[in-house]
Amino acid sequence: MTSRVPSDPGKLAWYYSNTKVYLKVTSLPKIASDVGPLRHAESTSVLPSHVRGRSSAITDENWNNSMVNSHLSPRPRSSVRSPRPMTPTEALKRYGHRLTPYEQGEILDYPEIWYLGLDSKKIQGTSNNANHGFDDENGSYIKVLNDHVAYRYEILEVIGKGSFGQVVRAFDHMTGEEVAIKMIRNKKRFHHQAAVEVKILDLLRRKDKENIYNIIHMSDHLVFRNHLCITFELMGSNLYEVIKKNNFQGFSLASIRRIAFSLLQCLRLLYRERIIHCDLKPENILLKSKSSTSIKVIDFGSSCYDHLRVYTYIQSRFYRSPEVILGLPYSMAIDMWSLGCILAEMYTGYPLFPGENELEQLACIMEIFGLPPGSLLQQATRRRFFFDSKGNPRCITNSKGKRRRPNTRDLASVLRVNDPHFVDFIRRCLEWEPGARLTPEEAIRHPFITQESSSRHGTPQTTPTQNRHHRSSTVSTASSSDNSHNSENSRSRDDISMRLRSKTRDRERLQPIGAPDPNYIIDESSRVHRMSMSSTSITSRGEPLEGEKFLPPIL
Ligand SMILES: Nc1ncnc2c1ncn2[C@@H]1O[C@H](COP(=O)(O)OP(=O)(O)OP(=O)(O)O)[C@@H](O)[C@H]1O
């Protein structure tokens, strides 16, 4: 058995000067071993995975086979991992001839060698290219399947791409578990914001020792080949993928209540710590696994402390609050706005405010909620982009020829729901005035949330029971075959009931119910647009001035 030395310095040190954060590599990971020495021929982690676990006797023959077949093999589990790493000197002596010249030097910086990726198509690491040829033209690390990260993790698959970099599924040869590694782009502005992300993740992990706030837990962070790598527990699909897989039909109110309850746990902690997430959206809410209905919030790459706000151009457009759009000071209340938008979308299957640009974004909001109060407009630094000198909203026709007029739609009919509590909950998340919006503490006591969960208050991870839903959709996408892989004994009663509804839901797909208001239907190409616009806003996280120019944009 191995354990991390508790005083592991974490490899990065933070230096603060006003709002600037500096990142410096201080040392490499140290690992303590509480077992005696092991012969390295049996040090399974440095051997191809399918050899491990089959036989402890390593022969030339199975070694060679493993070279060819390793990508077809199931990944090893902790039962077969090595309890002890090699030293770099030992690794060089045994396998140096199979490492690249670059690695032969690099490996000496790593006191513990858990995995070498010998059967991968390694990049040679020539000094002529930018970052020795390890990066593409955007500063993203070029991933090589089955190669190592920091002589410990084995790259298995790319599972996500964002403006900050890429997220890969990897096998941790030290712990024997699969992890997600976010590999940040090798560009100065991303280094800086990623340093803030790590700092916030570190605090949240310390505040959430019992794992009850539905916030992604960072496992580790390190610098590898000039890329900050943040490792996380491996999660399942994000809610946008789930809803897409479900043909954009949306979830039942009972499922929405569960999602709301889980997200509010996260927001409660953030509120208490005065942290603003700044990019809440379905893509940043992940299911714990394929068969689970539990969720966690990810991506603190745009987050900031309430008193250390740096950027004005934040949030993905569909979920962007009016104060951000209008150029007003913002606070934790912007996340409550996003929450309202997300829950509405989870119910209908479509974004509540699907603006094609910022002008239309505000028009979408005004269409339901009328003009913003004068008190907000007076201070809005970006007012002139949305309103003329007489205070009338500037009109815009979108790409589908639609013009949106203030106060012409009603929230309940847009949501197509007859639950007044749900409508009220959404309305109160979407107050123009940030101070008038529900706080997470108030929201958790709202009748929409307490309606069916009052008996369970005080146990944050427990989701409300679901016995009254208007539709039978479910947040669970697990098919029966997916579910068959899971032991029912290990599931909560809620999980099982979700599964049963999932089957009903499949039947009802033939006759879609609760179809969204046609005015709000956006096709897949818009969705792609939305995704790219979302990236645009996030790319701008690293370029705050872009939003601050306030040139009538390309809004
Ligand atoms: N722990 C995880 N487990 C599984 N998948 C993950 C995990 N973390 C991230 N992903 C996947 O990678 C995607 C991108 O991750 P993340 O949002 O953290 O990166 P980003 O560069 O900040 O993206 P964006 O530009 O959208 O903000 C997520 O939408 C998700 O699908």
TrEMBL record:
Keywords: ATP-binding, Kinase, Nucleotide-binding, Serine/threonine-protein kinase, Transferase. Residues 153-449 form the Protein kinase domain. ATP binds at K182. Signal peptide: none annotated. It catalyses: L-seryl-[protein] + ATP = O-phospho-L-seryl-[protein] + ADP + H(+); L-threonyl-[protein] + ATP = O-phospho-L-threonyl-[protein] + ADP + H(+); L-tyrosyl-[protein] + ATP = O-phospho-L-tyrosyl-[protein] + ADP + H(+). Residues 58-92, 447-521 are annotated as: Disordered. It is an enzyme of class 2 (transferase). Residues 58-72, 450-466 have a biased composition (Polar residues). Gene3D superfamilies: DYRK, Phosphorylase Kinase, domain 1, Transferase(Phosphotransferase) domain 1. Its EC number is 2.7.12.1. Residues 488-510 have a biased composition (Basic and acidic residues). Residues 73-84, 473-487 have a biased composition (Low complexity). Belongs to the protein kinase superfamily. CMGC Ser/Thr protein kinase family. MNB/DYRK subfamily. This is dual-specificity kinase. It comes from Priapulus caudatus (Priapulid worm).
